[in-house]
Amino acid sequence: MRVLITGANGFVGPYVLDALRRICGHEIAVAATSKDGGPHPAFGQVEVLDVTDATAVQDAVARHRPTHVIHLAAVAALGAAQADPRNTWRIHVGGALNLANAILDKAPDCWLIHVGSGLVYGESAKTGRPLDENTLLAPIDDYAVTKAAADLALGALSRQGLKCVRMRPFNHTGPGQTEAFAVPAFAMQIARIEAGLAQPVIRVGNLDARRDFLDVRDIANAYARAVLTSRDLAPNTIFNIASGVSWRMGDILDLLLARSSAKIVTEQEPLRLRPSDLPCIVGDATRARTLLGWAPDHPFEDTLAAVLEDCRARVAQA
Ligand SMILES: Nc1nc2c(ncn2[C@@H]2O[C@H](COP(=O)(O)OP(=O)(O)O[C@H]3O[C@H](CO)[C@@H](O)[C@H](O)[C@@H]3O)[C@@H](O)[C@H]2O)c(=O)[nH]1
């Protein structure tokens, strides 16, 4: 198997490499690409590939002749996606279409494993029920609507022969994630306070939101299992990757604070509040469990402990 990964040098890429090696075997050939490229501790070297450049994408697919593309390249943080919607459309929708068309032209047997988002269900989450893959897509912001548009476009292209797996991962975290996301945003502030680098005040956004969280390794395992089992999948299959449990953000913060001996007070910062924030999201991943043979196996409390340790190490190194 030859796997081409886009956006490989982001948060999830190294975890996917590790999962591919564990689940698909060490003989798997991995081509790591990203917009910037350059040396990378896990991949050795990452090749430059801007997914918005249709010609470059055609060239990369023709050269590597991948059996699978795992498309991670994205504007992953909602704030960044919202700040430049035109760019978000270009990357999420243009990037996915460039890859799909290059595969249809140059490597028609290749599977495109598209990393969408559980946020595509948007308003549909308001029922409070776990969201399965048949739930109406009702995205509420630029991030989610562009992920939904790309996901739907690939579904339509499957009618022209594209073999795609449309992944809809729910929230995930782990060591290495940036402070643009809630868990490392909380943990980095705790680490800075513990190191005496900040006042003992942690600034937060909406703590009443409830999100379905997984360890990033469980998410990466699902992508690798899609590669491994692709020959048994229908050529256009959608998978939610979720735990089925929703965590209140305030409870996540409390678990992190319980791991610190520092006396810390919490303060809401208006800038961290979103114009629209879904109150509760929880996913139903029954299909992934059944067809991919996937199940999460990292307790979330352990993941939180690992994120806090990683943040302490990052602060100590800074
Ligand atoms: N980022 C951030 N979020 C905060 C904060 N305080 C509270 N929150 C709340 O914490 C929740 C989670 O926010 P994020 O960690 O930023 O994740 P997200 O916006 O839900 O999106 C993540 O999950 C999606 C799948 O469900 C992914 O598609 C997306 O890329 C990202 O990983 C949101 O309800 C947000 O309002 C804070 O200081 N920072």
From TrEMBL:
Keyword Repressor attributed: no
Gene Ontology MF term list: GDP-mannose 4,6-dehydratase activity
The protein's Enzyme Commission number: 4.2.1.47
Domain called NAD-dependent epimerase/dehydratase: residue spans: 3-242
Pfam families according to UniProt: Epimerase (PF01370)
Domain of life: Bacteria
Protein keywords: Lyase
Broad enzyme group: lyase
Name of the featured protein: GDP-mannose 4,6-dehydratase
